[in-house]
Amino acid sequence: MWYEPILAYALEAIVTLVIALIALAVAYGTRYINKLSERLQEQSNNELVEHSIARLERLVVVAVTAAEQRVASDLRQAVKDGKVDRDELLAVAESVKEEVLLKLSDETLKVLEETFGDVIGLIEDYIEATVHELKK
After folding, report:
1. Which of 109, 71, 112 lies closest to 93, judged by CA?
2. Other C-beta atoms within 10 Å of 63: how many?
3. Kind plus residue range of the DSSP H or E element containing 79
4. Rounded to an integer, what distance in angstroms lies between the CA atom of residue 71 and that of residue 89?
5. What is the tens place of the pLDDT at every residue in 24-79?
6. CA dist., res. 125 & res. 136, Å (int)
7. Where in the chain are the domains?
8. Distance CA 29, CA 54 (A)
9. What pLDDT shows up at residue 30?
10. Does the reported pTM lie above 0.70?
């Protein structure tokens, strides 16, 4: 019949349109999966940073408490009385810092460095804060 070529063209156009819609759906689906993957990676990184900070805090508290029990309180009193130079008290803080650095894994150090930059300064700040909390 006279309309058969028209039907063939219409069918071809519909098939092309359906293929284009499928391609568009695949593209949007891929974009959605990529965005979801990025969010999951960011969440994983945030959890890793939080875990690293918590590990650092625990190590500092344990190391400072142990140093306080061993020598720091006696040294602090001796410094107040003028019997000992303040440098000995600072040496205790330095040994606590070294102890914490030795106990942190390379991965934790890397995460902390990527997040905060100066890990040594961060550890020193945590030590000072912990000493302050213990004095209360």
Report:
1. 71
2. 22
3. helix 73-80
4. 9
5. 999 999 999 999 999 999 999 899 999 999 999 999 999 988 888 877 666 666 76
6. 17
7. 4-135
8. 37
9. 94
10. no
